[in-house]
Design goal:
The protein is an alpha/beta fold. The protein has 11 helices and 7 strands. The chain has one domain: NAD(P)-binding Rossmann-like Domain (Rossmann fold), CATH 3.40.50.720. Helices cover 48% and strands 16% of the residues.
Length: 249
């Protein structure tokens, strides 16, 4: 149960973030549903039964992140759970470039959202978690960050940095009752990922793992909710791979 917990899920207007926010609210948490568009956040929050509050949040805007966290504390008094889910949209042009052809600007663009966005939110939430006697941070990464890949170098590099942030927080703040986890995802059938592929690509992606299928965003959401609960009270810093059995740690 996540009753009486206040949770922030970045990028929860749709896809995996939306399902995580919905699952948290279903388990009793007060959830802050975030999008760069207030209208988008409001629309998604309305679709969630339970305590879901819309907020505008662009994780690339440092001052905006600080303001967001201050307002959140004013309204809800605390932040118990932070899920860094916001991710730079899939860009096939960036994805298919050879490593030596990727422009530094491409690395920066992806990194501003996936890596530095995660960093900014952690920075702004940690002081309040310390003050409140604890918290849980869940960072969304990707299997290439664990095993490497031949495409999508900017994503892999940014998502590998996310794993480092998780480990650092776990070790540095364990004594403050703050736990941190990384979810390294395989092919999860969010609308964004699914619609970026041809039918053949989708079929091939499904065949990559031992279960021979795509994962559903709800399957990520249930793991996130368990991690955020007291069930995982003596585990921290872990990378949990959710990919139907491809990358085995
Ligand atoms: N789906 C997969 O197969 C897969 C695999 C591995 C990892 N992941 C990771 O899982 C996460 C969610 O993926 P998804 O497939 O659900 O993607 P999605 O449907 O494209 O959702 C991305 C979310 O991020 C938000 N976002 C984008 N830029 C943002 C910014 N600058 N500031 C704040 N929010 C921003 C979007 O919100 P607005 O547009 O409303 O602002 C949206 O809610 C991402 O981190 C992704 O890298 C996904």
């Amino acid at each position: 149960m996540l009753k009486d917990k206040v949770a922030v899920v970045t990028g929860s207007s749709r896809g995996i973030g939306f399902e995580i926010a919905k699952e948290f609210a279903g388990r009793g948490a007060t959830v802050v549903v975030c999008s760069r568009s207030m209208a988008g956040a409001e629309k998604s929050a309305r679709m969630i039964k339970g305590k879901a509050y819309p907020e505008r949040l662009d994780v690339t805007d440092r001052a905006g992140v600080t303001k967001f966290m201050r307002q959140l504390i004013d309204r809800h008094r605390r932040v118990d759970i932070l899920v860094n889910n916001a991710g730079y949209r899939f860009d096939r042009k960036i994805w298919t470039k050879r490593f030596h052809e990727v422009a530094e600007e491409d690395f920066d663009r992806v990194s501003q959202v996936d890596l530095k966005g995660t960093l900014r939110l952690c920075h702004s939430a940690l002081p309040f978690m310390i003050k409140n006697g604890g918290g849980v941070i869940i960072n969304i990464s990707s299997t290439p960050a664990v095993s490497g890949h031949t495409e999508g170098a900017p994503y892999t590099v940014a998502k590998a940095g996310v794993i480092a942030i998780t480990k650092h927080i776990a070790l540095e703040y364990g004594d403050k009752n703050i736990r941190a986890y990384t979810l390294a995802l395989g092919n999860i059938s969010s609308e964004a990922t699914f619609s970026s592929m041809t039918v053949t690509e989708r079929k091939n992606a499904a065949m990559e793992n031992s279960m021979k299928r795509w994962g559903d965003p709800t399957e990520v959401a249930r793991v996130a909710a368990s991690l955020a609960s007291d069930d995982f009270s003596f585990a921290t810093g872990n990378t949990i791979v959710i990919d139907g059995g491809t990358v085995l740690l």
